[in-house]
Design brief:
The protein is of the alpha/beta class.
Amino acid sequence: MAYDYLTDLNPQQRRAVKHGVRDGSAIGTGPLLVIAGAGTGKTKTLAHRAAHLIANGVDPHRILLLTFSRRAAAEMTGRVKRITAAALGTGDIDLAWAGTFHAVGVRVLREYAHRIGLQPSFTILDRSDAADVLDLERHNLKFSKKESRFPTKDTCLAIYSLTINSGASLKSVLREKYPWCVEWKKELRKLFNAYVAAKQQQNVLDYDDLLLCWAEMMNDPALAEELGDRFDHVLVDEYQDTNRLQSKILLKLKPDGRGVTVVGDDAQAIYAFRATTVRNILDFPSQFEPPARIITLEQNYRSTQPILAACNGVMRFARERFTKNLWSERKSKQKPFLTTVADEIAQARYVVEQILEAREAGTMLKSQAVLFRASHHSAQLEIELGRRNIPFVKYGGRKFLEAAHVKDVISVLRWCENPADRVAGFRVVQLLPGIGPAIAAGVQAEVEARRGRSDVLASIEVPKAAAEDWPGFAKLFARMRKAKAGWPAEFGLVRRWYEPHLPRIYDDAHLRMADIEQLEQIAAGYGSRERFLTELTLDPPDATSGHAGANTRDEDYLVLSTIHSAKGQQWRIVRILSVIDGCIPSDLAIRTPEEIEEERRLLHVGMTRAQDELDLIVPQRFYSHQQARFGDGHVYASVSRFIPASIRDLFDRQHWGERIPSLAKAAKKSGPITDVPASLLRIWR
């Protein structure tokens, strides 16, 4: 070996990497659970374990590596290749089965499609398209015309998704999460049956189907054994973020646990609203006989020791957890701050003052982050940042694929790939002038009747207003169906057809065109239209060029983020807004002990993002929408219950005493905001 890669690991990491590997053999090792606290080198440990298995004779094609984002899969694969190349002096290692649960699910379903009743040419609906399909069935069943208000399409999809992923009954989901929809249980059940039938007819799967169909396939013992036998090792990242279906898939793949390694942190389980369950990681050891081995990583490489002491203090009171005590060799005399301010306006003024002071002291804006429980908690701060001309990016907002112009182009590609995809076809045909819903529905029906033949559009009569544009559209459809241009040249065909329509449909065409050009660059990285559509749906880019794009216009910018969106990130300085009861924990998430415990973990995740400085801010008064009807809406606040008096000596407590009468007066004194660059205004919106 060129070098001993195990010397890069601490003792606990090394134990996890070497688990079950003896005398150069690593086949059939027993199950392992690695509890990896925040900042303890989780990714490094899992990548080294995969490399160590390969170095000890495991065929990389027989390793299944499951992650929760495409970026994580790419990073993990890259690390494994670098380690094995340096250690073994070999060429590239091909981890052919590395990817997200959903991406691997697509591959499995396409491969086994004919054996499980699917057509391998299925296309995948993103969330908004799935809601549109569901909405169409909602109208067909006349539920939208009920005298009392029937749930919206997005609410219906959320109920459906939670029911599928949690494994709970529709009755219990409605009772516990959507009590205002209980009266519609019978109608919702009928709607969901119609939705499933519509997807089957159109040969489409939604995001949840990728796991559901895979899990149902694993109910066939022969298929489960066949797929399981293809892998000697199954490595799973972020196991605390798995749902019932993902856990079922894993346990069916390897019912005895041989070769299974899962890595995660119960203290970072914060996605119950997506139907994940912390029980998967808490119960993992006992699901095997003998129980899985547990190795805990506690040495943190991110934060200073005083910050970790406060984080440990918050988790000390958790009702159920794997015991761990995060520690660091990074010593500091500076404890995290617990800062009280008068109200949310004072909070905004204080945060901006601290940001600017830190910047003057040499800390770039990009190295500072302001985190919050819910997106609207940053509203006052965003106003103050705008007034002070400080650029920022906000995460947790609009996604790239939700932009209308991006959906237009993607829909053209999807419809040409699968002409039975009614949502895509219905949208695409209406891009032409003079065509409305009725004509679009007729065109779609004709396309389906003639099974998507390449020449079908050329023979369809359209209104005079569309006559000029129709031949070019029909020619595009024909060329795309024949697929002779190849990929990514096909994307260029679509872009050139769409470009002259853009100014007619949207006002800010030049900005939107930049997104289409960006999308074309992304498309060039894929080998086929099918692969591009699949991967883009499963792991879309974060934001459009007109939203959250300060990094393309400013050399430096502040990061604003919900705590959920900040998971996995780190900054030198982190400030957390409104660490008070009613915000953290949210007053909407304290109905059950389980919800309260997830809120505790959420605060822990936010705190562990900080490297050098941490500031928890406590406004003494805050605005409550629930109280607005009884007065001005402001109520007195108390420090979050997760920071009890017994651990407050772990913080430097301070009060920022500037009294700000009202933001309106402050803005009036400063004059109107007339000198803000247009690019920043787009960001702030």
